[in-house]
Amino acid sequence: MAIIDSFQTEEKSKKALKQILPEDTIDHIFNISDEEQILLNQKWVNIFVELTDLYKEGIEPRSLLVQKCIGKVYDLLVSFVGEDLSLITEIKEEDLPQDLLKLPSPFSEEQQKWMDEAFEHHFTLIEKKEKG
User: Which residue has the higher pLDDT, 10 or 78?
Assistant: First the structure.
């Protein structure tokens, strides 16, 4: 049953993502080997554990420690969608398919706000860097 459910979930995810991402990006996301998927999952878990620890320690979202961690998230995102993260950053919540909005978040509302501030600061730094 778990195998069937995982296939159904994957197909629903693909269908939902097709509404907001280019086909080649979706193909890249879903066509990685099991070994790569395991390594990728480990990276995501490690990063989010690190972010959670920094949040619990009361470290400011704009601090160098937090920004280095956000940089790891940025690098993983770039590995999927390329340097132009506007594919992700310019998506409005109202444009997201309902299937994606129903996914549970592992973060509290306060922690999500903290991470949103950290990401916003990170993207501001990148924009400043690109402008010179």
Answer: 78
